[in-house]
Amino acid sequence: MKDIFNIKRFGKYLASDFRASVSRFGLSFLLVSLMGLVIYAGTIIMGLMLNGTWEGPSIYFRTATFAICIAVLVLTMPAKIYGHITEKRAGSTWLMIPASIFEKFLSMILICGIIVPALFTCVYLGTDALLCALDHTCGSSICHIGKDIAGYRSEIPEEVMSAVGGLMNPLSYIDDMIGSILIFLLGAICFKNAKVVKTILFLIVLSMALSIIGTPFMYSYMETLANNPAMTLEEFFSDSWLGNLSLIDTVNDIAVIVIATAGIFFRLKTIKH
User: CA-CA distance, 106 to 261, in Å (whole number)?
Assistant: First the structure.
C-alpha cells in the first residue's frame, strides 16, 4: 500500500507540485482572477472621460466578464500547468519524481480540479463583493444575480421557475467548471501539441455524435408540440424532462467529472516517452 500511497510522501509531492504550478500559472491566475477589478477601473475611467459621471459596471456586465474569465481559466490552466509531461525531456523528469502514479494523479486532480477553481472563485467573487460594498453604483454582487432574475418571477410560470431556478445561481456552475477543466486536463496530457485546439475539435466531434444520437428524442418532443398546439408552456414543462433540468444538469456534470477523472488516471498509467 505504501508503494501506492504514502501520506508523508504525498504531502511533500503536493507541496512541490503546487509550487511548480504557481511558477507556471501564477501570473496568469492573478490576471484572470482580478479581471473584475480591471473591468471596474476601466468602466469608471471611461465614464468619467466620456460622461463625467462615476458609475460602476452593472451586475450583468460583471457576470458576463466572470463567465469569460472562467472560460479563459478552463482553456489555459491545464495545459500551462501539466502540458509539459507530454514532452520527452520534461515528461521523463516528471515520471522519475519519487512518487507513485496515484499520488501524482491525486495531486493533479486536487490542484486543477479543486484548489485552483476554489481560489479563483473566492478571489473573483470576493473582489466583486468588496467593490459592490464600497461602490453602490455597481449594484448587487455577482452572487446575487439569481435574486435579481428572480425579481421577474411574477412574469415567469411556476413550472418554468421550478425547472430552471437552480440554474440561476452562478455558484451552481462550479461543477461545470470543474468538469470542463478536467476535460481540458485530459487533452493536455493526451495531445503533444495544439492541446487546446485538438481538445476543442474532439469536443465538437463528440457533440455532433451525441446530437445525432439525441435527434430522435428531440424529434419526439417536437412532434408532441406539433400534435398539441394548445399545450401551454406550463404544461410542457410539467409533462416533459424539461421539468427536471437542474437534476439532469447535476447528473450530467457528475458523469463528465467521473469519466474525465478515469481517463486522466488511465492516461497517466500508460504514459511513456
Answer: 10
pLDDT tens digits, one per residue of 48-96? 888 888 888 988 899 899 999 999 999 999 999 999 999 988 888 898 9
Helix (H, G, I), strand (E, B) or coil at 58: coil
Alpha helix locations (H) across the chain? 7-33, 35-50, 59-82, 88-96, 101-109, 116-134, 145-150, 158-164, 174-190, 195-227, 233-239, 245-270
C-alpha to C-alpha distance for 253 and 178, rounded to whole angstroms: 9
Q: Alpha-carbon distance 160 to 232, whole Å?
A: 11
How far apart (Å, rounded) are the C-alpha atoms in residues 107 and 14?
A: 6
Q: Indicate whether this model's pTM tops 0.90.
A: no
Closest CA to 5 of 132, 111, 117, 99: 99
Tell me how far apart the alpha carbons of residues 220 and 208 are, in angstroms, rounded to a whole number: 19
Q: Which amino acid is at 49?
A: M
Closest CA to 143 of 157, 133, 134: 133
In the chain, domain spans: 7-270
